[in-house]
């Protein structure tokens, strides 16, 4: 306000900040209605297993089709949903929708949902997930959950016990975007994690930058030594794919294999998948 009175340079930015805040409030309001209005959908991106050359599972990714804005990316609306607490309802919808979809896929295809740190801190989270599975009549070993390092950072009791009870029930736990959070590696031995997903930012430059190569190689090695499998995220070209395979990565995900697809499209994609495509 002082800047305004004095006619200082902040004046120039103030209308901009206000516009951003207004924009956020509008999205927040639209977001809350979007669930009733059926504007959300899941798409599924396959994961390639290097050992078998087959599609081993997929990741469910949330899409919001806004009536006037079109597709709003999750990087915009997830943080708003987290800040407002709406993520609890939205996240439950994601889990229920994934459980409804799983029976359409072959039995060996596991579907992983992304779960935010805010959801994990709710004491009844694990029970809700298990209830969704049993309501849909889906076995818990067909579901996976992707969490980020930041979710584990605070060493929260409710979070840790949710992870433990879900893992015990057979839900596969993946550590997402590995290397971008605050890597306190102690949780790797404290918690039952099954998979590490190496963030796209490392995979992207694995052939161009020696630091990315060193980090990726190190993560693959560490995962192997811990008996955890490891996924390269965001694989966009064949050279990245063969680098990951050569260097002992277990799985790959990215536009090279497939973009995220609707459930029927993923079903067809799996049916027509030829392991020879990626052999070499
Ligand atoms: P994520 O979990 O790391 O998901 C991978 C993101 O990378 C997806 O973006 C996917 O479309 C994109 N991607 C996959 N392969 C490639 C590639 O080869 N190149 C490039 N450039 N990108 C690739 P998307 O769908 O926009 O999701 C962004 C993030 O939003 C996700 O990152 C996840 O953190 C979050 N998110 C998505 N769905 C949900 C959800 O249902 N719940 C929560 N809590 N978060 C979600
Ligand atoms: Mg993910
Ligand atoms: Mg990821
Ligand atoms: Mg990522």
UniProtKB/TrEMBL annotation:
Ranges where the EAL domain occurs: 24-274
Protein name, entry field: EAL domain-containing protein
Domain of life: Bacteria
Organism: Methylocystis heyeri
